[in-house]
Amino acid sequence: AQKVTQAQTEISVVEKEDVTLDCVYETRDTTYYLFWYKQPPSGELVFLIRRNSFDEQNEISGRYSWNFQKSTSSFNFTITASQVVDSAVYFCALSEVNTGTASKLTFGTGTRLQVTL
Amino acid sequence: EAGVVQSPRYKIIEKKQPVAFWCNPISGHNTLYWYRQNLGQGPELLIRYENEEAVDDSQLPKDRFSAERLKGVDSTLKIQPAELGDSAVYLCASSAIGQGISPLHFGNGTRLTVT
Questions:
Q1: Residue A100 contacts by C-beta under 8 Å, 6 or more apart in sequence?
Q2: Does A103 sit within 8 Å of B95, measured CB to CB?
Q3: Do A99 and B103 touch (CB under 8 A)?
Q4: Of A7, A21, B43, B73, which one has the fewest beta carbons inside 10 Å?
Protein backbone atom coordinates (compact mmCIF):
# COMPACT_ATOMS: atom_id res chain seq x y z
CA ALA A 1 0.00 0.00 0.00
CA GLN A 2 1.13 3.52 -0.70
CA LYS A 3 1.53 6.04 2.08
CA VAL A 4 2.60 9.66 2.34
CA THR A 5 3.65 11.17 5.66
CA GLN A 6 3.85 14.88 6.34
CA ALA A 7 4.95 14.96 9.95
CA GLN A 8 4.73 18.75 10.29
CA THR A 9 1.13 19.62 11.01
CA GLU A 10 1.65 23.35 11.21
CA ILE A 11 4.59 25.71 10.69
CA SER A 12 4.68 29.38 11.50
CA VAL A 13 7.41 31.67 10.14
CA VAL A 14 8.05 35.36 9.82
CA GLU A 15 8.11 36.83 6.34
CA LYS A 16 11.43 36.48 4.52
CA GLU A 17 12.43 33.39 6.45
CA ASP A 18 13.17 30.20 4.56
CA VAL A 19 11.00 27.20 5.36
CA THR A 20 11.18 23.52 4.43
CA LEU A 21 8.17 21.24 4.31
CA ASP A 22 8.97 17.57 4.76
CA CYS A 23 7.43 14.67 2.85
CA VAL A 24 8.24 10.99 3.29
CA TYR A 25 6.57 8.33 1.19
CA GLU A 26 6.20 4.57 1.05
CA THR A 27 5.59 2.49 -2.04
CA ARG A 28 6.54 -0.88 -3.44
CA ASP A 29 6.38 0.40 -6.99
CA THR A 30 9.60 1.10 -8.84
CA THR A 31 7.89 3.63 -11.06
CA TYR A 32 5.84 6.36 -9.46
CA TYR A 33 5.24 10.09 -9.46
CA LEU A 34 5.38 12.60 -6.66
CA PHE A 35 3.46 15.87 -6.51
CA TRP A 36 3.14 18.95 -4.37
CA TYR A 37 -0.14 20.88 -4.21
CA LYS A 38 -0.99 24.15 -2.48
CA GLN A 39 -4.42 24.70 -0.94
CA PRO A 40 -5.10 28.36 -0.10
CA PRO A 41 -8.11 29.37 2.01
CA SER A 42 -10.26 29.43 -1.13
CA GLY A 43 -10.06 25.63 -1.10
CA GLU A 44 -8.80 24.92 -4.59
CA LEU A 45 -5.82 22.59 -4.81
CA VAL A 46 -3.17 24.22 -6.97
CA PHE A 47 -0.61 22.02 -8.71
CA LEU A 48 3.00 23.04 -7.98
CA ILE A 49 5.28 20.29 -9.23
CA ARG A 50 5.44 16.74 -10.54
CA ARG A 51 8.49 14.51 -10.32
CA ASN A 52 8.91 10.94 -11.58
CA SER A 53 10.83 8.31 -9.69
CA PHE A 54 13.65 8.19 -12.22
CA ASP A 55 14.48 11.86 -12.02
CA GLU A 56 16.30 12.75 -8.83
CA GLN A 57 17.48 16.13 -9.97
CA ASN A 58 16.56 18.93 -7.65
CA GLU A 59 14.34 21.59 -9.14
CA ILE A 60 14.11 25.30 -8.54
CA SER A 61 11.26 27.53 -9.63
CA GLY A 62 11.61 31.06 -8.41
CA ARG A 63 11.45 30.98 -4.62
CA TYR A 64 10.41 27.33 -4.62
CA SER A 65 12.78 24.38 -4.68
CA TRP A 66 12.32 20.66 -4.29
CA ASN A 67 14.75 18.02 -3.05
CA PHE A 68 13.97 14.44 -4.09
CA GLN A 69 16.03 11.75 -2.40
CA LYS A 70 15.07 8.23 -3.37
CA SER A 71 17.47 6.73 -0.82
CA THR A 72 15.47 8.21 2.03
CA SER A 73 12.08 8.19 0.23
CA SER A 74 11.74 11.90 0.74
CA PHE A 75 10.52 14.76 -1.43
CA ASN A 76 10.99 17.96 0.54
CA PHE A 77 9.81 21.40 -0.49
CA THR A 78 11.62 24.63 0.42
CA ILE A 79 10.27 28.15 0.13
CA THR A 80 12.99 30.78 0.17
CA ALA A 81 12.23 34.25 1.49
CA SER A 82 8.67 33.35 2.41
CA GLN A 83 5.83 35.81 1.84
CA VAL A 84 2.42 36.22 3.41
CA VAL A 85 0.84 34.96 0.18
CA ASP A 86 2.56 31.63 0.76
CA SER A 87 0.24 30.98 3.68
CA ALA A 88 -1.73 27.85 2.80
CA VAL A 89 -1.91 24.14 3.40
CA TYR A 90 0.61 22.22 1.35
CA PHE A 91 0.03 18.61 0.34
CA CYS A 92 2.52 16.07 -0.89
CA ALA A 93 1.04 13.26 -2.99
CA LEU A 94 2.17 9.99 -4.52
CA SER A 95 0.79 8.52 -7.72
CA GLU A 96 0.80 4.94 -8.83
CA VAL A 97 1.38 4.24 -12.51
CA ASN A 98 -1.02 1.65 -13.82
CA THR A 99 -2.72 3.02 -16.87
CA GLY A 100 0.18 5.10 -18.03
CA THR A 101 -1.91 8.20 -18.18
CA ALA A 102 -4.21 8.67 -15.26
CA SER A 103 -3.09 9.41 -11.74
CA LYS A 104 -4.45 7.90 -8.56
CA LEU A 105 -3.06 10.23 -5.98
CA THR A 106 -2.44 9.29 -2.37
CA PHE A 107 -2.18 12.47 -0.37
CA GLY A 108 -0.45 13.22 2.89
CA THR A 109 -2.32 14.98 5.68
CA GLY A 110 -0.88 18.35 4.71
CA THR A 111 1.24 20.99 6.40
CA ARG A 112 -0.35 24.30 7.25
CA LEU A 113 2.10 27.15 6.67
CA GLN A 114 1.45 30.48 8.32
CA VAL A 115 3.63 33.38 7.23
CA THR A 116 3.33 36.53 9.32
CA LEU A 117 4.72 40.02 8.95
CA GLU B 1 -8.55 28.21 -20.09
CA ALA B 2 -11.46 27.80 -17.69
CA GLY B 3 -10.76 25.63 -14.69
CA VAL B 4 -12.79 22.84 -13.15
CA VAL B 5 -16.18 24.19 -12.10
CA GLN B 6 -18.13 22.75 -9.21
CA SER B 7 -21.51 23.62 -7.74
CA PRO B 8 -22.87 24.30 -5.28
CA ARG B 9 -20.06 25.85 -3.29
CA TYR B 10 -21.75 25.08 0.03
CA LYS B 11 -24.58 22.76 1.02
CA ILE B 12 -26.23 22.25 4.39
CA ILE B 13 -28.72 19.43 4.75
CA GLU B 14 -30.29 17.35 7.49
CA LYS B 15 -29.27 13.74 7.85
CA LYS B 16 -31.21 11.24 5.77
CA GLN B 17 -31.78 13.84 3.05
CA PRO B 18 -30.37 13.37 -0.46
CA VAL B 19 -27.77 15.69 -1.95
CA ALA B 20 -26.08 16.04 -5.31
CA PHE B 21 -22.91 17.74 -6.47
CA TRP B 22 -22.09 18.77 -10.01
CA CYS B 23 -18.76 19.07 -11.79
CA ASN B 24 -17.73 20.44 -15.16
CA PRO B 25 -14.14 19.46 -15.99
CA ILE B 26 -11.63 21.37 -18.07
CA SER B 27 -12.52 21.12 -21.73
CA GLY B 28 -10.77 18.20 -23.39
CA HIS B 29 -9.90 16.41 -20.16
CA ASN B 30 -11.07 12.85 -20.50
CA THR B 31 -10.32 11.73 -16.94
CA LEU B 32 -12.47 12.95 -14.07
CA TYR B 33 -12.09 12.28 -10.36
CA TRP B 34 -14.18 12.78 -7.26
CA TYR B 35 -12.25 13.15 -4.01
CA ARG B 36 -13.49 13.65 -0.46
CA GLN B 37 -11.52 15.77 1.96
CA ASN B 38 -12.29 15.51 5.66
CA LEU B 39 -11.29 18.34 7.95
CA GLY B 40 -7.56 18.38 8.56
CA GLN B 41 -6.91 15.57 6.15
CA GLY B 42 -5.71 15.12 2.61
CA PRO B 43 -8.18 14.30 -0.16
CA GLU B 44 -9.15 10.67 -0.68
CA LEU B 45 -10.26 9.26 -4.01
CA LEU B 46 -13.89 8.18 -4.31
CA ILE B 47 -14.17 7.43 -8.02
CA ARG B 48 -12.25 7.92 -11.25
CA TYR B 49 -13.75 8.10 -14.74
CA GLU B 50 -12.07 7.70 -18.06
CA ASN B 51 -14.57 9.19 -20.48
CA GLU B 52 -17.93 7.68 -19.48
CA GLU B 53 -16.47 4.61 -17.77
CA ALA B 54 -15.91 4.40 -14.02
CA VAL B 55 -12.51 2.67 -13.97
CA ASP B 56 -11.90 2.88 -10.22
CA ASP B 57 -14.77 3.08 -7.75
CA SER B 58 -13.29 0.83 -5.11
CA GLN B 59 -13.42 3.59 -2.48
CA LEU B 60 -16.98 4.68 -3.20
CA PRO B 61 -19.48 3.66 -0.48
CA LYS B 62 -21.92 2.17 -2.91
CA ASP B 63 -24.75 1.70 -0.45
CA ARG B 64 -25.41 5.43 -0.37
CA PHE B 65 -23.13 7.07 -2.93
CA SER B 66 -23.59 7.06 -6.68
CA ALA B 67 -21.98 8.92 -9.53
CA GLU B 68 -22.48 9.34 -13.21
CA ARG B 69 -20.69 10.97 -16.10
CA LEU B 70 -23.01 11.14 -19.02
CA LYS B 71 -21.45 11.83 -22.43
CA GLY B 72 -18.03 11.82 -20.84
CA VAL B 73 -18.10 15.47 -19.82
CA ASP B 74 -20.01 16.70 -16.76
CA SER B 75 -20.39 14.52 -13.72
CA THR B 76 -22.75 14.29 -10.78
CA LEU B 77 -22.04 12.74 -7.39
CA LYS B 78 -25.04 11.84 -5.25
CA ILE B 79 -25.48 10.81 -1.64
CA GLN B 80 -28.75 9.26 -0.53
CA PRO B 81 -29.39 9.26 2.34
CA ALA B 82 -26.74 11.52 3.85
CA GLU B 83 -25.23 10.72 7.25
CA LEU B 84 -23.49 12.98 9.75
CA GLY B 85 -20.14 11.43 8.82
CA ASP B 86 -20.53 12.58 5.23
CA SER B 87 -19.75 16.16 6.23
CA ALA B 88 -16.64 17.02 4.22
CA VAL B 89 -15.43 18.90 1.17
CA TYR B 90 -16.10 17.07 -2.09
CA LEU B 91 -13.52 17.88 -4.72
CA CYS B 92 -13.73 17.25 -8.42
CA ALA B 93 -10.60 17.08 -10.55
CA SER B 94 -9.77 16.38 -14.16
CA SER B 95 -6.69 15.49 -16.15
CA ALA B 96 -5.74 15.01 -19.76
CA ILE B 97 -4.20 12.11 -21.57
CA GLY B 98 -0.67 13.05 -22.44
CA GLN B 99 2.91 12.11 -22.01
CA GLY B 100 3.42 10.40 -18.69
CA ILE B 101 1.24 11.19 -15.72
CA SER B 102 -0.70 14.37 -16.14
CA PRO B 103 -1.26 16.52 -13.08
CA LEU B 104 -4.78 16.74 -11.71
CA HIS B 105 -6.55 20.08 -11.87
CA PHE B 106 -8.98 20.59 -9.01
CA GLY B 107 -12.10 22.65 -8.59
CA ASN B 108 -12.93 24.73 -5.52
CA GLY B 109 -14.97 21.93 -4.02
CA THR B 110 -18.39 21.66 -2.41
CA ARG B 111 -18.43 21.94 1.37
CA LEU B 112 -21.16 19.65 2.69
CA THR B 113 -22.50 19.98 6.22
CA VAL B 114 -24.91 17.33 7.43
CA THR B 115 -26.83 18.26 10.59
A1: none
A2: yes
A3: no
A4: A7
Distance of CA B103 to the CA centre of its chain: 16
> Mind listing the pLDDT tens digit for each residue in A45-75?
999 998 888 888 888 889 999 999 999 999 9
Which residue, among B68, B52, B72, has the nearest Cα to B60 in the 3D structure?
B68
Q: Which amino acid is at A10?
A: E
Q: What is the DSSP string of A64-75?
A: EEEEEEGGGTEE
Q: Which residues are within 8 A (CB) of B101 and not within 5 positions of it... i.e. 6 or more apart?
A: A33, A50, A52, A95, A97, A101, A102, A103
- B30, B97 in Cβ contact below 8 A? yes
| Mean pLDDT, chain B, integer | 92
